[in-house]
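Reopening this ticket.

The earlier resolution said the output was attached, but the attachment link was broken on my side. Pasting everything inline this time so it's all in one place.
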Amino acid sequence: MPITIADVAARAKVSKTTVSRVLNGKGELDESTAARVRAVIAELGYVPSARAVNLARGRTRVVGMLVPSLTWPWMGEVLQGAVDVLEAEEYGLLLFTVNRGPDSMRQFDAQVAAKSFDGLLAIEPEGTLDYIATLHARGLPMVLIDDRDQLSGGTIATVGTTNHSGAADAARHLLAVGRHTPLVVTGPARFGCTVQRTDGFATVFAEAGHPIPGQRVLLGDFTVQCGADAVRRAIAGGIAFDAVFCHNDLSAFGAVQAIQDSGRRVPEDVAVVGFDDIPMAAHSQPPLSTVHQPMREMGEAAARTLLAHFEGVPLPTRPTVIPATFVARSSTIS
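Inline output:
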């Protein structure tokens, strides 16, 4: 049988509360009593539960993380960045997804109520921002990751990247390689990153004297299929284009496939650019030019921000922004 705090208390002839105070260094104790308790702990070989000690100190040393799904291609990078920081500081991670919809959120809410974690990192699942904002208003420390700074009204600490300037860099690259009539495959219109990427890309082409007409901007949903479908619709509709800018790498993979299926070559006939720089982008055929999102760095920064808050540093009121960078590969340069 493992030694318990009750065994220590009985042997030292004190209460369990007194043993707890010795373990946690809390409260005024007679030094001879404290010394007796420590001697019994050593004699019995008692090892206190880390969770029990932390709870007694008002801290679980666990961080919660709420994400939409683990199937998003770049999710692993964000998680790894956060875990690297948390494990280095001896914190655990309690991960929640919303794969089961309301049932998942009820489970998450129960863990919030039970104070199972000290603070929250979140990539806001669709439709949960009001709930997350309520948790924040009630005092739960949190940091949002990705483009949600627009949506949180600036009241919640956020870590994001430069969607607007990243897309602008993609536009400048296409212009530099002589492409003037791009097709644009966006993400869902309700996402802040879609607005930013659309505007950043279009502004550069407009300033260069090549404004992008609405017929060459096609709504997508970040899937391989939407990229392929957009290209096929453009070809069927007789829309001329010499480049495709997709708002993520998956839709760019679909675009490449549809272009090649039509008998055209990438990049000789049509250049293709994605956004994200997921690991597969460097190994596709041809390797994909894309905007690199610093997803691991964003996870690291969010975790560091939250841990610093636990040590008394106020959460920032301005977004933490880690720049995106353009990566040129063979899908735009022959």
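Reporter confirms the inline version is readable. The chain is about 45% helix and 15% strand. Confidence is low (pLDDT under 50) at residues 148-152.
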